[in-house]
Amino acid sequence: MTTKPRFLDLVRERIRTKHYSIRTEEAYVGWIKKFIFFHNKRHPAEMGKLEMEQFLTYLAVERNVASSTQNQALAALLFMYKEVLQMEPPWVDNVTRAKKPQRLPVVLTKTEVSQLFECIPLSYQLQIKLLYGCGLRLMELVRLRVQDVDFGYHAITVRAGKGDKDRVVMLPPSTIEALQTQLTETKRIHDIDLSNGYGEVYLPNALDRKYPNANKTFAWQYVFPSRNIVTDPRSGKKRRHHMHEQALQRAIKQAAIRVNIHKKVTPHTLRHSFATHLLESGYDIRTIQELLGHKNVETTMIYTHVLKQGGKGIVSPLENL
User: Fold this and answer.
1) Fewer Cβ atoms within 10 A, N terminus or C terminus of the chain?
2) pTM exceeds 0.85 for this model
3) In terms of one coarse class, where is the protein primarily found (predicted)?
């Protein structure tokens, strides 16, 4: 007798069919589970717009979550109704989304970036320089594969960035020697893994079925591999994944504290600084848009507002008294 699969297992199955990332899977399943428990374990098929809005209101009023968090919860619930329950009631597309506040990004000066470089531990020097020097997002950096680095063209290909788009960014010449050294170490680790019966790496979009031996080739290995071999939560296979992003986040935060930078400094701050400093150097907004991988130039335009803040190019009336 076959047992009926649990609802959350159906959610996971649909997410994997759509090739969503493991992080999206964890987030969506988490929100759907909270939604069900909030309504005393009622089945989602029995609920609708009213129950959804009650849950979202609870998040905003009682939990005081950010608008981005509330919208992520909404996205999870809409996915559940559209993709899992195959329901398209009129109210699905008319649920009010939380308005995201317009914030100017935190940007470091070039002096502050240099100070951060000097204080970051040696084991994270290359990573932080690539974040700033290429304008990479944190997960784009840790997910870099060996084959994505092109020393001949001084380029890095960012695969499946935000919006599942590929793009090419510059490879700063000052990082080439350190990056070559890193790849030598990555090759050494990979060879050891192969000799121990491991050496497989996760391949996206079921490429391991299309190219059965690709997952053990050096080209597909992560540039910055994890220190440990772990069990893949989806396949159950033991693999060496990429380095954990939280280690780099902590290193950057601690370095900022040590050099007395009194700003909220995160890996994304370096991406903001990359874009702003390019604007300061006279590069056009469309070029910067392409390097950042923004869908709309309006997103990139926020950095022009950063330059206007603090009186860039504007003389205060105080100076004319």
Assistant:
1) N
2) no
3) cytoplasm
